[in-house]
């Protein structure tokens, strides 16, 4: 027998299974970086991809809008690279008073002065103020045209009216657009709520009852309409320069790319793949995935990344076992609660999602849809009554989950294990 021992909340959860059934233990690739974060940042800025250096692009007297991520993305360590970007602009002849910092809030809340200080760092926060984008303030935005998908591109005026737009952030896997970073600074970052909602609604197939698009998933931009739509919106804004970081397994900056927002982002995606994209030989009948313990499994909403990644390691209709303590239940966001609690069938859920699309509603819908298409077992402290209108099975232990998975089934069902399901994306190796 082989022992499984995976993170769960503040502790671990274990169970036993036949070792012959194990296909793979899916972990992040070994990654070593011998450069400091400052060296990585400087090297990227001084060697842009598909572009001249930023200081050689701008000119004296021109205005620049630097688009930054909000406080929920402070793990990007923006204070480590924003001052270097300002140095580049100053060297190019752009004065401080000609630089605007615009926070890509998307649909997130406004921030406090203290949070702005965290993002900019001690020195820059004394020299600059940060403007928070408000996706509901139509008067602060301008219409640039429609995409081929019919999405009206309505963007913050402060960015559009500047001579240059510099977009910053980080590239990680994203369950809708494939990878974050790059164009996401524009849409959803500084776009109107209407623009954001119509773009994100492309995650659904055409026609009520058709459900989600298979091509809208982590690590994919091929035939991904959300990605294509965002790229069209970004092309209307024409960002002058991009700077994005890539984080390592230790939470430090492991790489960075700068330059043209299309070609530099492509290079960044490859680096993300080299760290967190894990090739697997075969999908299994059962996948067991841990979110990675607290705080990644603090509620159901936070556990969505684990579910999305786990789906990539299991056969169609197989069994997905997710270890997520969910000490705070579903999560405080009203929309995901409404989607899970207020409906007892997928058609009504989909109808509501189409009528008033939000990311949090989509997360709730995705959990419910996965429960319909797979045997989805949640090892959790969540109240089972909260999920009674879904087909999601809730157990207290991994051992019980395995018993359910094997009930009335062949005892030789294969298993893939994902100890860090929130951050590893399985990719089926091409033969």
UniProtKB/TrEMBL annotation:
It comes from the Bacteria. Residues 282-423 form the Lactate racemase C-terminal domain. InterPro entries: LarA-like, LarA-like_C, LarA-like_N, LarA_C, Ni_dep_LarA. One of its GO terms (molecular function) is lactate racemase activity. Residues 8-205 form the LarA-like N-terminal domain. This is Nickel-dependent lactate racemase. The gene is larA.
């Amino acid at each position: 027998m082989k022992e499984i021992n995976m993170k769960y909340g503040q502790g671990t959860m274990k169970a036993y299974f036949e070792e012959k059934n194990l296909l793979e233990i899916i972990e992040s690739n070994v990654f070593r970086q011998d450069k400091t974060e400052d060296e990585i940042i400087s090297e990227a800025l001084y060697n842009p991809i598909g572009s001249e250096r930023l200081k050689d692009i701008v000119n004296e007297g021109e205005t620049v809008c630097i688009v930054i991520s909000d406080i929920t993305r402070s793990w990007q360590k923006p204070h480590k690279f924003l001052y270097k970007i300002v140095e580049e602009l100053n060297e190019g002849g752009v004065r401080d008073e000609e630089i605007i910092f615009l926070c890509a809030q998307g649909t997130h809340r406004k921030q406090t002065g203290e949070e702005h200080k965290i993002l900019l760092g001690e020195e820059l926060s004394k020299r600059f103020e940060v403007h928070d984008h408000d996706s509901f303030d139509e008067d602060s935005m301008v219409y640039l045209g429609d995409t081929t998908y019919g999405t009206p591109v309505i963007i913050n005026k402060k960015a559009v009216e500047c001579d240059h737009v510099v977009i910053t952030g980080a590239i990680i896997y994203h369950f809708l657009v494939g990878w974050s970073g790059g164009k996401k600074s524009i849409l959803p970052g500084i776009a109107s709520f209407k623009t954001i909602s119509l773009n994100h609604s492309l995650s659904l197939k055409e026609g009520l009852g058709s459900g989600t698009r298979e091509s809208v998933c982590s690590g994919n931009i091929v035939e991904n309409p959300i990605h294509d739509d965002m790229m069209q919106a970004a092309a209307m804004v024409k960002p002058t320069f991009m700077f994005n970081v890539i984080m390592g397994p230790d939470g430090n900056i492991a790489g960075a790319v700068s330059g043209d927002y299309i070609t530099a982002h492509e290079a960044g995606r490859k680096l993300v793949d080299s760290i967190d994209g894990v090739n697997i030989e075969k999908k299994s009948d059962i996948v067991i995935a841990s979110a990675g313990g607290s705080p990644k499994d603090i509620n159901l909403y936070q556990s969505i990344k684990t579910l999305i990644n786990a789906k990539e390691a299991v056969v169609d209709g197989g069994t997905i076992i997710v270890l997520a303590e969910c000490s705070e239940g579903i999560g405080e966001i009203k929309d995901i609660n409404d989607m899970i609690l207020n409906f007892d069938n997928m058609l009504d859920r989909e109808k509501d999602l189409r009528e008033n699309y939000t990311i949090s509603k989509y997360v709730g819908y995705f959990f419910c849809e996965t429960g319909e298409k797979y045997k989805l077992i949640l090892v959790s402290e969540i109240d089972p009554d909260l999920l009674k209108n879904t087909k999601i099975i809730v157990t207290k232990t991994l051992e019980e989950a395995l018993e359910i998975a094997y009930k009335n089934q062949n005892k030789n069902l294969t298993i893939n294990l994902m100890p860090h399901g929130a951050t590893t994306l399985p990719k089926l190796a091409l033969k």
